[in-house]
UniProtKB/TrEMBL annotation:
<dbReference type="InterPro" id="IPR004307">
    <property type="entry name" value="TspO_MBR"/>
</dbReference>
<dbReference type="Pfam" id="PF03073">
    <property type="entry name" value="TspO_MBR"/>
</dbReference>
<dbReference type="GO" id="GO:0016020">
    <property type="term" value="C:membrane"/>
</dbReference>
<keyword id="KW-1133">Transmembrane helix</keyword>
<protein>
    <submittedName>
        <fullName>Tryptophan-rich sensory protein</fullName>
    </submittedName>
</protein>
<comment type="similarity">
    <text>Belongs to the TspO/BZRP family.</text>
</comment>
<dbReference type="GO" id="GO:0033013">
    <property type="term" value="P:tetrapyrrole metabolic process"/>
</dbReference>
<dbReference type="InterPro" id="IPR038330">
    <property type="entry name" value="TspO/MBR-related_sf"/>
</dbReference>
<keyword id="KW-0812">Transmembrane</keyword>
<keyword id="KW-0472">Membrane</keyword>
Amino acid sequence: MRKLHSLNKGSIVGFIIAIAIPLAVGSLSSFFTRDTMQQYQNLIQPSFAPPGWVFPVVWTILYVLMGIASYRIYSLGFKDPQVKSALLFYAAQLFVNFFWTIIFFRFEQRGFALVWLILLWVLIVITTAKFYRLDKIAGYLMVPYILWVSFAGLLNYSVWQLNR
């Protein structure tokens, strides 16, 4: 396991930026789908669907955990090819994450959203594995994200099937 750099004034700014990036991705995606929640609530929901208030709470927690994990990896030294690779996959999964919400809610393409979510899940698993190889804690911080996206996949599939 590699040694993380200690926090100093400059690294605190980096830490905040690392957390702000996934929060901004989630906020921007939510902004583009802000007026679609009523149509979503009108869909037939599976019995295990959580109430609507759960989603922003869970996603906020997940984005903060992702930001902390990415900071831990970045602090290992961006010049390291393994760090660059891990952060490239991290950026790719953030990109895919951003568009899933738009595909599912704005475009109402539930079947395609499921395929997109599977791509997201694969990218998250790869990112998590790469993070874990560099810093076990960073890898562990990504596990709730894998679990939630796995649940989201089941929910996505169920909503799609119930509303065809």
